[in-house]
Amino acid sequence: MHNTTGQLGVDGIAFDSNTQTIIVPDSPNGTVLRVSLDGKTVRVIAHGFLRPTGAWVETGGSILVVDENGNSLSRIRADGSIQELAHLLTPDDVIEDDQGHIFVNTLGDGAVHLISTAANRDTILIDGLIDPQGIAIDEQGNLIIADAGHHQLDRLILH
């Protein structure tokens, strides 16, 4: 899909190993797309977001999406229904570890949040970041955070 909105373009993507497709939060158009690996097939799987910027495919096939301008973390279920999981200040990226812990970095408060959907709790793990732009999990299960404003990568030891 082409960006004809005059808005900022796509921010992040995720690989869905279950379907061998790419999940694209289509930021300018407020949709989430499923794209074949060859790029020939594009399908809208969710809409109604303000600026989706990050996605993560959960083990069961549901997709976590952060909406930067909508200040939310949501789950898109296989049936297409959307469940809001948390309200956050300008979330940018989302990732989930193999134990089901959901981590979101947020631009609005310069933090990384741990979202517990079972306990309906949002815990700030680290703050004081400036423009956190990416998160990953290393081989030991710790978070690696791209802190663009400080021009550094930070490791948050979790285990």
Would you write up a description of this structure?
By secondary structure, this protein is mainly beta. The protein has one domain (14-156): Neuraminidase (6 Propeller), CATH 2.120.10.30. The chain contains no helices and 15 strands. It has strands at residues 14-16, 21-26, 31-36, 42-47, 52-57, 63-67, 72-76, 82-87, 91-96, 102-106, 111-116, 121-126, 132-137, 143-147, 152-156. The strands form four sheets. A four-stranded antiparallel beta sheet has the order 1-2-3-4, with no helix packed on it. The model has no long low-confidence stretch (mean pLDDT 92).
The appropriate CATH architecture is 6 Propeller
> Given this structure, which CATH class is correct?
Mainly Beta
Query: How many discrete structural domains?
Result: 1
Overall SS class: mainly beta
Question: How many beta-strand elements?
Answer: 15
Total number of helices: 0
Characterize the largest beta sheet: strand count, sense, and whether it forms a barrel. 4 strands, antiparallel
Straight-line distance between termini: 41 Å
Helix proportion range = under 10%
Mean pLDDT: 92
Our estimate of the beta-strand percent is over 45%
Fill in the CATH topology: Neuraminidase
H/E element string?
EEEEEEEEEEEEEEE
User: Shape, please?
Assistant: globular
